[in-house]
Specification:
Layout (H helix, E strand, L loop, with lengths): L1 H31 L7 H6 L9 H9 L14 H8 L17 H6 L3 E7 L5 E7 L10 H5 L5 H31 L11 H4 L2 E3 L6 H10 L4 E5 L11 H15 L4 E6 L3 E3 L3 H7 L12 E3 L18 E3 L4 E4 L6 E3 L5 H16 L4 E4 L45 H16 L4 E4 L25 H6 L7 H18 L9 E4 L7 H8 L4 E6 L8 H10 L3 H4 L2 E6 L5 E7 L5 E7 L7 E3 L10 E7 L13 E3 L3 E3 L3 E7 L4
Parallel strand pairs: 3-4, 3-14, 4-5, 5-11, 11-12, 13-14
Antiparallel strand pairs: 1-2, 6-10, 7-9, 8-9, 15-16, 16-17, 17-22, 18-21, 19-20, 19-22
Helix pairs in contact: 12-13
Length: about 650
């Protein structure tokens, strides 16, 4: 009895202990993990039917400890355990309420690609790679070849092929077109032979062999022969032709051109044109002269240019005929085409003989108002007080000089000369043109190397006072500006630079003039005192780009003691030419450092005969702010521009 009681007590105690252990285990499991209630589909998938089981069955499963999945996976089916590791989707997510996510949790939230890689020895290696860490390797050759003959891709490849070569050819043709059609930098126009200069004026007589040697010594590009005025329209005579042919042949043997000065204003009484005109009353030859009827007194103020007598003569036909240039010389009226044709015929004969330049004398007298009246008196401010009413200088001569139409006449003549020689010959004048605008046509001056400006006259009066250099600078700038404004933009303002008894000796004149934009013109013996070495250097300087195509600017120093100019072409050394017009015996230092672009130091390359500064010679360095000069001397230096 006691023994049975004790057995029952032990069973009750054992059940109690087991129940306490189960409760403790349950409590521990609830602290570690919490589970979402399994939805109905999951219950069905695991073979459990919550609606069909009785409470007793559910309690039994719980009491046995098999109804609750454990941490080691016992009590959970394979599918459910995998679902818990992978996060269980949206309905079976594991929620850790009391700790940070573990690596297991983080892996469970990523998609992992598992690769089984076998080796040669039979072992297998498992490679787990996250999807977002995989690199794109592209398609394999076999995969690409599936599309090789696909019509879409075939057409696309041909389209891209054609487009590539079409664009390539278009770019090639476009580059050729750009090169062909793009604006090109015009090459500098080379100077003609007469622009290169200098030109030497031959003296009369038969000393041409000696003058040929002088011309060769001075490096002259041409010589000028003055044809006697009365022979202008007798060029076709054997004597004149023989003379000109000899000149052209002799000087041509030394590659020196020949130019001729002619006087086209009149013909002599024995000229065939005048003799024919005497027998006419209104023919072309008759209109080539200026006539007045004897019934009316001609203008008394029309005076002769040479002797202040009346400019009218009585002709054998009972008419007055104009004769401004002396007895038996009858003015041609170049308003008439017959007179122009006669002059052009003479020019043609000269050019055919080998002459390559013509200068016309008395250019301002070439046009005359055939019906003009009395001349007006010169302005009292301008007239010489010593002149009288019977002198040529007393009148303005507006009826016989600087007439409108001279530009058209010279344009016709210069065009004729250029066409006859393909631009090799030139047409110019022998006197200064004081009204340059009259000789222009359509804003262009049709005269090659005109004589214009007051440079020569200023140098004659260089010792007149302290303002001589200022006036000289002003006149040089004015002359080149005026000529430049009356020439095409492609042409250079090229002047004749004539030597004619200036106050400078030949050496100073040559050093100062040879690099001015123009052609020096001087008598054959004018440079007799200039060394051949100096002349050769000047000729060398004239062949450089800075002279032939460079810019030209004129300056005075701070005290206006000296005048200087520069010649500069980009990329080449510049030339600095300075002339001191101050007289006396003391050396002068002039400051030209204010010239834009000039370097602080100049290299002397040539000095004039009067230059006598100690320790300064060729290749010497002189400062730009203190250039040493002797009285009435000139200097040429080179410099490297700073800009």
């Amino acid at each position: 009895m006691d023994e049975g009681r004790n057995s029952t007590k032990l069973d009750i105690e054992g059940v109690r202990q087991q129940s306490a252990a189960n409760e403790a285990l349950r409590a521990e499991g609830e602290l570690k993990e919490s589970y979402k209630k399994i939805c109905e589909p999951d219950v069905n998938r695991n073979g459990l039917d919550g609606s069909s089981k009785s409470d007793h069955q559910q309690q039994a499963a719980t009491d046995d400890g098999h109804g609750m999945p454990r941490e080691n996976g016992t009590g959970a089916k394979d599918g459910e355990e995998e679902r818990m590791l992978n996060g269980g989707g949206a309905d079976a997510a594991i929620v850790r309420s009391d700790a940070e996510p573990t690596e297991k949790d983080r892996l469970a939230q990523k998609e992992v690609e598992v690769k089984f890689i076998s080796s040669k020895n039979g072992d297998a290696r498992i490679d787990m790679e996250l999807e977002n860490q995989q690199t794109f390797t592209g398609m394999t050759k076999e995969e690409l070849m599936k599309y090789a003959n696909d019509p879409f891709w075939v057409r696309l490849r041909w389209l891209l092929f054609v487009l590539f070569w079409a664009l390539w050819v278009a770019m090639l043709l476009g580059s050729f077109y750009i090169i062909y059609d793009a604006p090109k930098c015009a090459a500098p126009v080379p100077l003609s032979w007469w622009q290169e200069g200098p030109l030497m004026e031959l003296t009369g007589g038969e000393r041409y062999d000696e003058q040929l040697q002088q011309a060769t010594r001075y490096g002259a590009k041409g010589v000028i022969y003055e044809l006697p005025a009365d022979q202008t329209y007798f060029v076709d005579s054997p004597a004149v032709q023989e003379q000109l042919k000899k000149l052209v042949a002799d000087f041509g043997s030394k590659n020196i051109k020949v130019a001729v000065d002619i006087t086209p204003n009149f013909v002599t009484k024995n000229d065939s044109l005048f003799q024919t005109a005497l027998g006419q009353k209104d023919g072309p030859e008759y209109r080539a002269f200026v006539w007045r009827d004897m019934s009316k007194q001609p203008p008394a103020s029309w005076l002769s240019v040479v002797d202040d007598k009346s400019a009218w003569e009585t002709a054998s036909n009972g008419m007055y005929v104009l004769s401004q240039f002396g007895p038996d010389r009858y003015d041609l009226n170049f308003e008439a085409q017959s007179a122009r044709d006669r002059l052009k015929n003479t020019l043609k004969q000269l050019l055919e003989l080998g002459v390559r330049g013509v200068r016309l004398s008395n250019a301002k007298h070439l046009l005359i108002n055939a019906d003009g009246e009395e001349e007006t008196i010169m302005n009292q401010v301008d007239v010489d007080k010593a002149t009288t009413v019977n002198q040529y200088g007393f009148y303005t001569h507006r009826e016989t000089t600087y007439r409108d139409g001279l530009g058209s006449l010279f344009h016709e003549l210069s065009t004729f000369v250029h066409e006859q020689t393909d631009g090799e010959a030139f047409l110019s004048v022998t006197e200064y043109l004081h009204r340059l605008e009259v000789f222009t046509v359509n804003g262009t001056l049709p005269i090659d190397a005109p004589l214009y400006g007051n440079i020569e006259f200023d140098l004659r009066d260089a010792a007149a006072g302290p303002n001589a250099t200022r006036k000289l600078r002003k006149d040089i700038e004015s002359a080149y500006r005026t000529v430049s404004n009356n020439q095409p933009t492609s042409d250079k303002p090229w002047l004749q630079l004539r030597y004619n008894n200036t106050s400078l000796n030949a050496s100073e004149w040559a050093v100062f003039h040879f690099l001015l934009p123009g052609v020096p013109v001087f008598p054959v013996d004018a440079l007799a005192n200039v060394s051949q070495e100096s002349v050769e250097l000047l000729e060398k300087f004239r062949t450089t780009p800075s002279f032939q195509h460079g810019l030209f600017n004129v300056y005075n120093d701070a005290n206006a003691t000296a005048i200087a100019y520069t010649r500069l072409k980009s990329g080449n050394p510049g030339y600095f030419v300075v002339l001191n017009l101050a007289q006396g015996e003391q050396e002068t230092k002039v400051d030209f450092s204010a010239i834009e672009g000039i370097s602080s130091e100049l290299t002397v390359v040539l000095t004039s005969q009067n230059y006598a500064v100690p320790n300064v010679g060729v290749k010497s360095k002189v400062p730009a702010d203190a250039v040493p000069l002797s009285p009435m001397s000139a200097l040429i230096a080179t410099y490297v521009p700073t800009k």
